[in-house]
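Marked as duplicate of an earlier ticket. Keeping the data here for the record.
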Amino acid sequence: MDTLRLRNQPLGDKNLVGARVEAARKDLGMKQKELLAQLQVRGVDLNASGLSKLEGQIRSVTDSELLALSEILGVSLNWLLTGENK
């Protein structure tokens, strides 16, 4: 049985997209492990800690990560950055 782990820390301020990445991933029913695998297929080398920090807005996101996340999650870059026009 999988249980959801709750974030232990408040959201940071290192990126604009982390909370939306997490929301889009969860909307797709995708686990972090699955997203990491899809990122690696696209040549983005990110580990579980890095993704957790990205989603928690504790770490910055690179342009190549942003593009891959948009493609994998099926959302626009504009939505990831602004929350408008998913």
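See parent ticket for discussion. The chain has a mean pLDDT of 91.
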